Amino acid sequence: MASSVSNRKPVIGLTTYLEQAKSGVWDVQAAFLPKVYFDAVNKAGGIAVLLPPQAIDADSAETILDGLDGLIICGGKDVDPARYGQSPHPLTDEPRPDRDALEDALLTAAINRELPFLGICRGAQMLNVIRGGDLIQHLPEVVGDDRYQKGQGNFSHIPVKVEEDSLLATVLGNDAPVGAMYHHQAIGEVGEGLSVVATTEDGVIEALQLDDVPFGLAVQWHPEQTPEDIGLFKGLVEAAQTYAAAHPRTTQRSSS
User: Fold this and answer.
1) What is the pTM of this model?
2) Catalytic annotation on 19?
3) Catalytic: which of 74, 103, 184, 224?
4) pLDDT over 60 at 98, yes or no
5) Residue 121 annotated to the active site
6) Which of 1, 75, 197, 225 would suit a FRET pair with 155, their CA atoms being 20 to 30 Å apart?
């Protein structure tokens, strides 16, 4: 059983947006995710499954993770500042409580069962918040300009320094990444159990590692925007493959 499971492609869940969307005659709320995210998962050898914002409890989160070998908390709107005890900055996005709640439940459950996970941009911020950390709500007030988010969908490309002997360094090899940046918020006080494993020259935290799980990484940059370098996705998929081999799923759920 374990050997056959280890040879199958791992299933990676990706959280999605819930926004107003137009398609033909329809103008409705819809869950969606830019194609570059699941293209990167596929290119890395995984199967992508999209997870829309929805009301779930802890048991439902466990049920969702039962069908996954890895999890990606994707980019998107700002985390609700109420979750880390702050009032919203004038430029902080309108809260998305449904998505916040879903990602909190999924990340918490993933950490508890040591399911491999990767946070991207908002995902890094969500990880820090659920571990008791907080966020800098408007980074230009700290660094003095908008270099990390130029706006209009234009990514900035900023070098980051990766800590030696970190999981991130192992995943990326010896290459110092130049991150595709699009964040006006950043990690503030670092949450419990998290290590800072990458920063920019001006000291902005760009990656976190959860130390007490086999694979728990989160980056502020957007690796899905650089398809020629999918090291982070390959690292997650390989960790998910190992997880799948160690946690084979039964072919039929037993009746209760």
Assistant:
1) 0.93
2) no
3) 224
4) yes
5) yes
6) 197
Indicate the burial class of 2 (C-beta count within 10 angstroms; 0-12, 13-18, 19 or more). exposed
Distance CA 127, CA 59 (A): 20
For the chain, the average pLDDT equals 92
Measure Cα distances from 189 to 82, 131, 136, 146, 167 in Å: 15, 10, 9, 21, 21
Strand 194-199, strand 70-73: pairing: unpaired
Residue 214 phi/psi, 5-degree rounding, is -65, -40
> Residue 98: what are its φ and ψ, rounded to 5°?
-65, -45
**Single-letter amino acid code for the residue at 5:** V
State the pLDDT confidence band at 250, using cuts at 50, 70 and 90. low
Q: Is there a contact between 195 and 207 (Cβ–Cβ < 8 Å)?
A: no
pLDDT reported for residue 12: 98
Residue 241 has which token pair? 């493959």
Active-site residue, selected from the candidate residues 74, 183, 222, 238: 222
pLDDT digits (tens, 9 = 90+) for 128-148: 999 999 999 999 999 999 999
Q: Is 192 a catalytic residue?
A: no
Q: List the structure tokens of 251.
A: 């072919």
CA–CA dist 182, 180 (Å, integer): 7
